[in-house]
Amino acid sequence: MLLRRWSPSNLIPPSTLIPQRLLSSNRNDDVHKVFSIISSSATAEELEESLKSSGVFLSNELIDQVLKRVRFSHANPSQTLEFFRYTGRRKGFYHTAFSLDTMLYVLGRSRMFSHVWDLLSEARRKDQSLITTRTLMVVLGRVAKVCSVRQTVDSFRRFRKLVSEFDTNCFNALLRTLCQEKSMTDARNVYHCLKHGFRPNLQTFNILLSGWKTPEDAEGFFMEMRDMGVTPDVVTYNSLVDVYCKGREIEKAYKVLDEMRDRDLKPDVITYTCIIGGLGLIGQPDKARGVLKEMKEYGCYPDVAAYNAAIRNFCIAKRLGDAYGLVDEMVIKGLSPNATTYNLFFRVFYWSNDLQSSWSLYERMMVEGCLPNTQSCMFLIRLFRRHEKVEMALRLWGDMVGKGFGSYTLVSDVLFDLLCDMGKLGEAEKCFLEMIEKGQKPSNVSFRRIKVLMELANRHEALQSLTQKMAVFGRPLQVHPSTESPTETPGSLSAHSYN
């Protein structure tokens, strides 16, 4: 057992700790109370009266937490907007940037774009400093997810009157959003059309250099960057190494490493991880493992991601013994395998339909304290359904609820299918209620599946109870994007379309 070294800071009287715990508990209770008011109120007037009579002090911190919970539980966006405006109307009160961005995210997710722009206009009049580059990314991210590239660019232009400085940082935010929500081709087309209105910097090129499909395109863009007098850094070179490795041009990737060293730019762990992945693509997993040793000679030590790349190579080659050997080596080096490490093995076991190995690996994860992520859970739950293993599925769900990992929504859809197919209505109802208690909304498909079984079993009271609990999440207002912005068929456009 490790003993803590004595220091005066360790001598905290228990009496000072209790109020802190009570304060945290009271704060959580207040968040839950306000969230329930938002979810259950039918009108704006009812919402205001309930908030006034609740006795809860609506501080910035509490509002931040309430809005955060609304976001992750998919609560009623219309009533949440009423709550946001009610609290903002108080004399001398100003929302935080976090609250504004979260509220905009909630509205954008529900496609309530007219309210998004109204709220931004209100924020500009009251406190323009709240509208930041992050705000721009939040709004553009939601627009880009459901609207066309042109509509996204039009939305970007509207920010010219909203932000204090419409500069290269804003331009970079647009490009990053297009990379994430549309395609790299869209981002590069927009760059070429709008670059003359901004001054592209190193960050601009680093955003655009990621994800290239062909080395020829990357080389051309790299030359344009140099012609504009922008000096590449390690991130820039890593993008070039990555595209060469993905294109299986390993010799060119090694030449980039030499150029980096000639320019006194030290290749980092990301550089070597790309090389390891590239060697795996050309069927040289043993040489890739050698890179782990080679990089140490240059003073760069492999991290978990580097080991995962080498492990992936052996998993693809079906050499699981060597893959497990690298996991053991990681542990010896003081590195802890993460969920991504285990997913490499889960994928092999899933496609080979190896239930026992998957279950053993899952138990090993739990013993070692490495919580699975959503991908791990999906590999497992689909395998359990394939083999009709109800007990294993319920064990996984119980761990998810108890320890808080994985996506309840994605896993529950498969779980409810399994339970309903096996006639386990009681278990399905229990899991359904656990999900709601966690503030997570089950899918409508799962609800309809359970509803049919309850009706057949004449469990009308239980069905009515579930229906009432589902009503807490409300029904988001679905507004087609064409009603909020110019009508256009979503999709990629050529560069000249943005002029």
If you had to describe this structure to a student in words, what would you say it looks like?
The structure is a single chain. The protein is mostly helical and 499 residues long. It has a domain of 100 residues: Serine Threonine Protein Phosphatase 5, Tetratricopeptide repeat, CATH 1.25.40. 70% of the residues lie in helices and 0% in strands. The chain contains 26 helices and no strands. Helix 8 packs antiparallel against helix 9 and helix 9 runs antiparallel to helix 10. The radius of gyration is 27 Å and the shape is flat. The N terminus and C terminus are likely disordered. One of its GO terms (biological process) is mitochondrion organization. Keywords: Repeat.
Low-confidence stretches: 1-18, 476-499
> What is the tally of beta strands?
0
CATH architectural grouping of the domain at 368-467: Alpha Horseshoe
Judging from the principal axes of the Cα atoms, what is the shape? flat
- The CATH topology of the domain at 368-467 turns out to be Serine Threonine Protein Phosphatase 5, Tetratricopeptide repeat
Treating each run of at least 4 consecutive H or I residues as one helix, how many helices?
26
Assigned CATH class of the domain at 368-467:
Mainly Alpha
CA-based gyration radius: 27 Å
β-sheet strand percentage: under 5%
Derived from helix and strand composition plus strand pairing, the structural class reads: mainly alpha
Could you give the distance between the termini? 67 Å
- Reading the helices and strands in chain order gives HHHHHHHHHHHHHHHHHHHHHHHHHH
Please outline the major beta sheet.
none
Overall pLDDT confidence: 87
